[in-house]
Amino acid sequence: MQSEVMFAGFGGQGILMCGKVLAHAALEEGHEVVWIPSYGPEMRGGTAYCLVMISDKPIGSPVVRNPSHLVAMNRPSLEKFASVVKSAGIVLINSSLISIDAGRTDVDVIKVPVTSIAKELGSVRAANIVALGAFVARSKIVGFDTLRHCVHEEFVNKNNFLSLNLNALEEGKKAVEMPAEK
Amino acid sequence: MGKKVLMKGNEAIGEAAIRAGCLNYFAYPITPQSEVAEYLSHRLPEVGGVFLQAESEVAVSYMIFGAAGAGARVFTTSSSPGISLMSEGLSYLAGAQLPAVFVNIMRGGPGLGGILPSQADYFQATKGGGHGDYHLLVMAPASVQEAAEMVMRAFPLAEKYRNPVIILGDGLIGQMMEPVEFPDYLKTEPTKKDEWATNGMQFRNSNKPNLVKSLFLDPNQLNENNLILKAKYERMKTEDTLFEPYNIDSPYQVLIVSYGTMSRVCKTAIDHLKENKFEVGMIRPQTLFPFPEVAVFKAASKETCKAVISIELSMGQMVEDVQRCVQGLRPVHWYGECGGNVPTPEKVMEVVKSLV
Known about the structure:
- The structure holds 2 protein chains of 2 kinds.
- By secondary structure, chain A is of the alpha/beta class.
- Chain A has a single domain, classed as Pyruvate-ferredoxin Oxidoreductase, domain 3.
- Chain A has 6 helices and 6 strands; from the N terminus they run βαβββαββαααα.
- In chain A, β4 (69-72), α2 and β5 form a beta-alpha-beta unit.
- Chain A is globular and about 40 Å long.
- The N and C termini of chain A lie far apart (35 Å).
- Chain B is an alpha/beta fold.
- Chain B folds into 2 domains: 5-201 and 226-239, 3-Layer(aba) Sandwich (Rossmann fold), CATH 3.40.50; 243-353, 3-Layer(aba) Sandwich (Rossmann fold), CATH 3.40.50.920.
- A 7-stranded mixed β-sheet of chain B has the order 3-2-4-5-7-6-12, sandwiched between helices.
- The radius of gyration of chain B is 21 Å and the shape is globular.
- The mean pLDDT of chain B is 96.
- At the A-B interface, α1 and β2 of A face α7, β8 and α9 of B.
């Protein structure tokens, strides 16, 4: 069984790190994992994406045409990648910044205002971890306890951000566990 | 064996060199391998090593010449245009029989090209780059783990042959993160450099003065030096050719020859085709020089095999070696892309199916 998760958004939204934390969690659980960044001539404010592949067998091609899931942090990302997600995959939409729909009926679309949630927690910079919490809570692609441990590891030396991001993770989880207000 | 850690290929390459006992690194930054220098700029001082950003790649190659000549374990990393600049030094290193390790995390060319993955430096690495009759021992990793292991093996190989070794990875190998563990058994000890290195008479037991040079004005001496080099390259072929066969016991109709990231795409394509009862075999060269000549010939000779294809991120370079090995026994085809887009498994399946 192999799953591929595409994280996409603006440069500066913490896309690459978000994928890295998920990859770390998958490794902790004994899976094979590959993390592939976009490394074109990128800049802050430009597009950024990364692909995390998780498998129970050694991973062959690091290139995939159709990822299993998409976490879209801004509108251009949703427009670019929504159509390539595999049927029955998850498409997580950052509804704080994206006003359009995924345009798909064969995928599990979850809308979470991750940027607004992060702002309420104290910093827009935690939006990526809110999204990660929401995505993992819904997909159960890794155990939530493992994920919490990996967020802790990532931020343990960045003291000011540790509790913010741990809270962000929980709020992301809550957002998908309780039906969002329409 | 240690714990598996998640690392970028570039970082793992830097760490692997330290674990192999190399504490001298001279380099000049270039995408997509700059993370090696970034990593080593803080890691080498921690372990008492030397990190030095040179004024140019040409300077790097002669800093390496100096350190290697003095018997120190030394390495550098760069990407395609940077390796072109270092190629003069590579020729001098090979001529003077000095061990050193180079890493080329290839990007698209020619010229400045692009910064995305490529395998277009195959000719440069395997057939020359610099001038004169010399070869590098060329290793091609297909994963972060293999990149780390090859770096650790490269130092003793360079010292065994007193010849530069180059690790040829594409941009994805450098940029992607995978779990990696650094095997303890690949830790290497310093070799007997006293026989040839200019490491100072007061530090060695012999009274024989050593001389490191690539200049031989006497034609007989120069010919002799070239015969010594040639003998080493022949020895590499018999002792250090590495390859991985894949699905080679099946009654395959098509044989793929592919290396690096591209070979992983081919593996996935082979697995999918197998589900559809279409058998394809693959030889993945892990050393590009020496090339797995016998393995490719034998695999192509299999009765069920109708066609051979070289799949590479270049406009058809390795295919010339494949043709040489197949010796006209089967039709040899080529498929590749060279702008930085790595073909998908679906594309490879389509190409392979069209051959029979």
